[in-house]
Design goal:
Two copies of one chain form a homodimer.
Chain A: H1 8-13, H2 18-27, H3 30-39, H4 46-51, H5 54-63, H6 66-74, H7 78-86, H8 91-100, H9 103-114, H10 120-123, E1 130-132, H11 137-146, E2 156-160, E3 166-171, H12 172-177, E4 194-196, H13 201-211, E5 215-219, E6 225-230, H14 231-249, H15 262-288, H16 291-296, H17 299-327, H18 336-366, H19 369-399, H20 404-432
Parallel strand pairs in A: 1-2, 4-5
Antiparallel strand pairs in A: 2-3, 5-6
Helix pairs in contact in A: 6-8, 7-9, 13-14, 14-20, 15-20, 17-18, 17-19, 17-20, 18-19, 19-20
Chain lengths: 433, 433
C-alpha cells in the first residue's frame, strides 16, 4: 500500500476510527511508519495522537509539520491535551502544543499540569455544563440551545450555587422527560459526588466503579467547581491500573509497551532479574550448607527443585489473589485474618495432598520410604508457609506504603525457595544420614 | 453494632450506597452476616443483591423472606436480573425470582437467558429509548415528557426505521442544545455501532474501550433492535477480563473470590499445582540424567537452581507482556515477528549481562573459572530461550484456540526449567569432567 504512495492511502485510512489508525501506526515497523506519516500528515488528527501509545507520540509529533500539530491539538478537549503533554520528555514539543492552544484552553491546561501527576486535576476536563440550582428545566433548555461552546459529549448538568460550588447534578434524561416549569432542584440525582483536584486518580476510578458514576465534579480547596471527570477517563485509569498490576506481578515495569525498542526492554527487565538473581543466590547459599548431604544422597539434588517450585507456585497463587483483593479494596483490616487463615489452611490441605503423591513418587523412583517421608513433610511445610507469605507479605507492604504488586513477588518466592530447600535438605540431613 | 441489635442498624446502613453494603456483607464472617440479614431483611434491596459477590448471593437470597426478594428484584433493570439469575446454582431460587417479575420483564429476562453465556444478549438491557428517524427534536422531547416507563439512566435516543432496525443515535446533549424543529437525523452521531445479540461480550467490551462508546444497540439476526448495552456494563466486562487474566497467569481459576470457603479454594488451586508438579518432575528427570556429574561436583547442585530460576523469571516477563498484548489486540500477525525478535534480543542481552555477573560469582565462590564459564553460557542460552518461548507459546496457544493466560505459564516455565538444567548440567558434563 505505502510502497505505491499516493492518495489511495488517505482514501483507505480516512474512514477508520482514530483508535484504529493509532493501532496501525503502533504495529508498523519504524521505516513504513515514517513513510506513512510523511505521506499523510494532514490525516494525523488530535484523536489519533491521543490514542497513540506514549512511546510513539514524540516520534510522530516530531515528524508532523507544525501547522498540522496546531490543528490536531485544537480539536481536543483540555483533558486530552493534558494527557498528551504530560508524558512528553521533550519540553520544546510541549511548548509548541501549548502555543497552539487558544488562550483560555492554554490557561486551563497549564493549571491542570499544576496538579500532581495521577491526580483528579489531571484527569478532569474543563468543559463543563452548569446551571444555577434555582433554574427550571425550561431555563436550562433555553440556555443550552443558546450556548455555542458546549463540550463534545455531556450527560449531566451540574447545579452550582452563586459561589460556583457544585451542589448537585441533573441527568439530561431527567431534563428531557420533565415539564419545562419543573425546578432543576426537584429532579436532581441522589448520588452526587465531588472530588478535590488533588485526590489521587485511583480514588476517583474506584468511586466510579463502585458507585456506577457516569460523571463527577472536581472542585478546588474552596469547594469551587473546576471541571468534570467522565466515565471514559475513569475507565481508562482502571484499565491502566489493572494492566500495571499484571505487569508488575510479573516483574515488568509498567511503562513498557510493545512499541518499545530492544534496549528499553532490556533496561526495564533488568532490575527485576537482578533482584531475582540475588534471591536465587540466597537460595543457593542455603543449598550449599547441605553439600555434604547431597554428595551422600544425590537423589536430594534431583528432588529438591520440586519442593521449591511447588512452594513458589502456591505462594504466587495466594499472592496474586491478595494483591488484587487489595487493589479492589476487598481485602481490608476487617477480613485479613480470615483470608490468611483460609490461605494457610488451603495451603496445608493441598500440601498434604501433594505430600502423599510425592511420597509415592519418591518411594517408587528411589525406593526409599524415608526419602518419601522427607519430601512429603517438606512439601506440607512449604505450602503452608507459601499461603502465609502469599497473603502476609503484600498486606505488610501495603501497610508500609510500598506497592504490593511491584515487590511482593520477589519476597514471596525468596521465602518459599529458602524454606523449601531448608526444610527438604534439613530434614534429609536429620533423618537420612 | 449487631450484638446490640435494633433499629440503629437500619439507621446506620440506610444512607450507604448498595455497593458499600454489599462489600460490608462480603467482609463479615458467616455468623455476623446471618445475624445482620435477619435483623435487616427489608434493607437488602435489588441494588445490594446485584452488587454482591456471586458466591454469597445464594446464601443471602435463601436468608431473605420471599416478599423481600420480590420487592428487591422488581426494582432492577432486566440486565441486572439476568446477571442475578444466570449464576444461581439453585434452580428453585431462579424460579422465585422469575415469578416475582412482571410478565413483560419476565419474558425479557427469559429471552436474554436464551442467548449464550458471555454474549451481548446477556449483557444488554431491554429498557431502551427509541424514536423514529424522521422525528424532530420537538417531537422527541414531547414523547419523552409523555413516556412513563423510561429507564433509570439513559444518554442516547436510538433512531429506528419502520421495521425497528436501529439506524443511528442522537445524544441527549445534542437534543437539548438544538432547536425544536431540527430533524433528529441531522444531529445524529457519526460513530454508530450495533452488535448482534450473539456477539461475545469481550468483542463488545473491546469496542467500547477502543471507540469510547457510551452505549450501543443490540440487534437480532434480522437487524431488529433488541436492547442496549451501556458503558457501565462494558466496563464491568473489561474489569472482569483483566482480573481473569491476572489470576489465570498466576494459575488461579477465575471464578474464585475472597468470600470463598477453604475447600473451594483448595479445589481451585489444586489443578494448577498438579500441572506444576508434573513439569517439576520432568525437570527432575532431566537432573537425574546428570547424577554422576553432580556427585563429582556438588557445586553444580548449588548453582543449578539459579539458571532455572532466572530463565523462569525472564520467561514470565515476556509471557505476561505477550498475553496482555494479545488480550488488548496489540499483538497481531503484523508485528509478531518483530516482537519475538525484540524479546529474543532482549533476553540475549540481559543473558550476557547476568552471564558476566554469574561467571564472577562462580569464580569467586568456587574458585573455578570453567564453572563460571559453564554457568555464563547456560544463562545466555536460557534467557534467549525464555524470550522465544515467552512470546511464541502464548501466540501458538491463541492460534489453536486455547486461552493463553490460562495455559502459557506452565509451558513456559517447563521449557525454561528443562533448558536451564539441561544446558547447565550438560555443559558441565562436557567441559568439567
Amino acid at each position: 500500500v505505502e510502497a505505491g504512495d499516493g492518495e489511495t492511502l488517505a482514501h483507505l485510512l480516512e474512514p477508520l476510527h482514530g483508535a484504529d489508525v493509532a493501532d496501525l501506526l503502533e504495529q508498523l515497523d519504524d521505516g513504513p511508519r515514517r513513510r506513512l506519516i510523511a505521506l499523510w500528515p494532514h490525516g494525523i488528527d488530535g484523536e489519533i495522537l491521543s490514542e497513540l501509545d506514549e512511546s510513539l507520540r514524540e516520534e510522530v509529533l516530531a515528524a508532523l509539520p507544525p501547522e498540522d500539530v496546531v490543528e490536531a491539538v485544537r480539536e481536543l478537549d483540555t483533558d486530552d491535551v493534558v494527557d498528551l503533554i504530560e508524558n512528553l520528555e521533550d519540553a520544546s514539543q510541549a511548548g509548541v502544543i501549548l502555543d497552539a492552544l487558544e488562550a483560555v484552553d492554554r490557561v486551563a491546561v497549564e493549571q491542570a499540569l499544576g496538579f500532581p501527576e495521577y491526580s483528579a486535576g489531571r484527569l478532569m476536563q474543563r468543559e463543563v455544563v452548569i446551571a444555577p440550582s434555582f433554574w427550571t428545566v425550561g431555563q436550562a433548555i433555553n440556555h443550552l440551545r443558546g450556548a455555542d461552546d458546549l463540550p463534545e459529549q455531556f450527560y449531566h448538568v451540574i447545579l452550582v450555587d452563586p459561589r460556583m460550588r457544585p451542589v448537585g447534578y441533573v441527568t439530561l434524561g431527567k431534563i428531557l422527560s420533565s415539564a419545562r416549569e419543573t425546578p432543576l432542584a426537584e429532579i436532581e440525582e441522589e448520588s452526587f459526588r465531588t472530588f478535590y483536584a488533588t485526590d489521587p486518580e485511583s480514588e476517583v476510578a474506584y468511586a466510579f466503579n463502585q458507585y456506577h458514576l457516569i460523571s463527577a465534579a472536581v472542585v478546588d480547596a474552596d469547594d469551587r467547581l473546576l471541571g468534570v471527570i467522565t466515565i471514559d477517563d475513569a475507565m481508562a485509569v482502571l484499565d491502566e491500573e489493572a494492566e500495571e498490576d499484571i505487569l508488575r506481578l510479573a516483574g515488568v515495569d509498567s511503562e513498557g509497551s510493545l512499541s518499545d525498542r530492544v534496549l528499553g526492554t532490556v533496561r526495564r527487565r533488568f532490575p527485576w532479574l537482578a533482584v531475582n538473581l540475588l534471591t536465587a543466590i540466597l537460595a543457593s547459599v542455603v543449598i550449599s550448607q547441605f553439600e555434604g548431604v547431597i554428595t551422600e544422597i544425590v537423589a536430594l539434588a534431583v528432588l529438591m527443585p520440586i519442593v521449591a517450585s511447588m512452594g513458589g507456585n502456591a505462594g504466587t497463587q495466594s499472592l496474586t489473589v491478595a494483591v488484587r483483593a487489595l487493589a479492589t479494596r476487598d481485602l481490608t483490616g476487617a477480613n485479613v485474618w480470615r483470608v490468611i487463615r483460609r490461605e494457610v489452611l488451603a495451603g496445608g490441605i493441598n500440601g498434604v495432598a501433594f505430600a502423599v503423591i510425592m511420597a509415592v513418587v519418591g518411594l517408587l523412583w528411589f525406593g526409599s520410604p524415608m526419602l518419601g517421608l522427607v519430601i512429603a513433610v517438606a512439601m506440607v511445610i512449604n505450602l503452608v508457609v507459601a499461603g502465609l507469605a502469599g497473603v502476609g507479605i503484600p498486606v505488610i507492604l501495603q501497610k508500609i506504603g510500598v506497592d504490593p504488586a511491584l515487590a511482593s513477588g520477589a519476597f514471596v518466592t525468596t521465602v518459599t525457595d529458602v524454606v523449601g530447600f531448608f526444610a527438604f535438605l534439613g530434614l534429609a540431613a536429620l533423618w537420612l544420614l
